[in-house]
Amino acid sequence: MSAMKVLAPVSSPDEVEMLVESGAGELYCGLVPPDWIRAYSGAVWLNRRSPAGANLSSLDALALLVARAHAHGVPVFLTLNAPVYIEQQLTYLADLARQAVATCGIDGLIVSDTALLLTLADMGLGPRLHVSSVASALNTEAVRFYQDLGVGRVILPRGLGLDEVGRISAEVAGAVPLEAFVLYDGCAFEEGLCHTLHHHRVGAFCVDLARWDATVERTDGERPAPAEAARLEAHFARHREWIWHLNACGATVSSGGMPLGACGVCAMPAFRRFGIHAVKIAGRQASPLRKLLGLKLVRAVLAHMETGSADEDVVRWAVRARGMHEICASGVMCYYRGPFTAPRLEADI
Amino acid sequence: MPISMPESIMTEWALALFRPSDLADLPAHLRLEPSRPGLARARQADARAAVVDRFGPPAWQRLYFGQEFCERRAPSVSEVRRAYSAAVSAGLAFTLLTSYVSDDGVDRLRPVLAWLSGLEDARVEVVANDWGVVRVVAREHAGLRLVLGRLMNRMLRDPRIVPGLVEARAPGDALAALRQPSLTAPVSRLLLARFGIGRVEFDNLIQGLDTDFRAIGLGASVYVPYGYVVSGRACAIGSLNQPAADQFHVGAACRRECLQYTVTRRADPLPVAGGHHEYLERGNTCFYLQDADAIGRAAAVASRSGIDRLVYQADLPV
Predict the structure, then answer these.
(1) Which of A43, A135, A215 sits opposite B165 (nearest CB)?
(2) Are B261 and A118 a contacting pair at CB < 8 A?
(3) Paired strand residues for B95
(4) What is the tens place of the pLDDT at every residue in A314-344?
(5) Which strands, in side-by-side order, build the sheet including A213-218?
(6) CA–CA min distance B318, chain A (Å)
(7) ipTM of this predicted complex?
(8) Chain B hits for A187, Cβ within 8 Å
(9) Per-residue pLDDT at A170 exceeds 90
(10) What CATH number does domain B12-225+290-313 carry, 1.10.238, 1.10.287, 3.20.20, 1.10.3210?
(11) Alpha-carbon span B251 to B246, nearest angstrom
């Protein structure tokens, strides 16, 4: 069984050494050239992250970043994963992808939109294409759909349970490598079915939605009785808490200094058994410190797995390393809940 | 002001029902009689008036039945059989709505597809909202007509922002980029043709839709009066009756609380002017309601773009 790769986000050439020396086996980044901004403003994103903060702005910077990573034998992937592109953008992006590969040495392209996938596959880039989680490949047949297009990897969406990841992995049986999220940036909805802009001026729709004034109506037209209304209000308060936890817990850290937010590190033993090729840390826009600490956590769990510990022991160790037993036990910060994740082992912790 | 619709453009009306219990009321739905009490009833009445005003009296030709948003609510074979019979009795063609699905969802869908396929009714359609479903239908039931559903069109539809962008005439090519799908690009059309897909479906997008479907030989549908903003597998209301440690995740059990409750969310003032202020949440999905002006814009877009089918949702589609 080959070791799982750890895929880390990077947003500057200056972060490469830090991330590679801390164990990143693969890196991914974004690029938004100035001519894109001039054409489309900040309202139409080239990839899934805001142009400001999360992206490089020139091919020169991309080439430098890739050269630094390649010096350590680490591949770099470029995100071209907006949910949709129009016809004239496909021409622009095909040229950008060609330069990113031929001139900058990019090893893979993370793509969601089917039209762009087809365009790049027609250019002979199929094996370099990684299907983004934004494409919502939620079942084996969807993974095979992308496999039929000749892609080199499929990134499984966050909206899958651990057992579902296991079934897809078993049925795909390594025919196309699979990647799964393990840290940061949870989504309250299915990422590919969220058609909102996470612009800093308006923020995430799920966060807004949860705090807006809510009126609950019964389908029979009756207003909820007082006790029922109170129960519903308490329920939606818990829902707001859940969304807060998915969204980095208000950018807080654990008592041990570990950044909080959506997490699936205790699913890593299961992912190894499933044959998942790579585990992904989200958050290109995050600070270098947040990236570094997240990477160190994931690497530490992987190192513990490599000592030959039983899966259950790795899970307990991961929960201790996370440093927030109560939150782990509650499940509110979990990407995946299942027989190998912390809530099921609450009694043992 | 009413926008006139040339008869030759909008040729087909489809009624969309999402619950087996709605089938008993099919005649009332075909008369566009509001079926829900309370706030929902008022919304239905307003929507009906706007649709009839802008599109003319209904000329029903097709019944849509099923679920686009939740695989747990996908109808069984017996429910689809009832729906198909109801459609045939009313002189309507039948379209099955399907959702985005996990592997379990695909398992549940297969016998339904097999039953529909066995009918050998050339007018039966399956609306697919998942490439996995597209693949299953195309490979296992080639006789069924595939339609690419509105969830497959990933265009921005953030009602907080898009009205402001339209109002402000967003700079450069931004607005044009927001008004075009990628599904109609030549490379996409080859893919659609490979799967035998001759129709694509859209929400009534706030920013409009700028594509000439006639010119590219694709059928196109528009859904009124509800458009979806976000959907996901972790259902907020579906966790209502679960223990706290087992809420808000994709595997959480539910008691179909979506059949009991609708949540209306009212937005705080936003930094971008012109955004929607009211959102309707049922089950795992949040919707925007199209007012009379928005439905009027749908009529104009349909006329201009060659959209040839109107899908009227009798209720929120969850």
Answers:
(1) A43
(2) no
(3) B64, B125
(4) 999 998 888 888 888 888 999 998 666 655 5
(5) A213-218, B261-266, B278-282, B285-289, B226-231
(6) 12
(7) 0.95
(8) 232
(9) yes
(10) 3.20.20
(11) 9
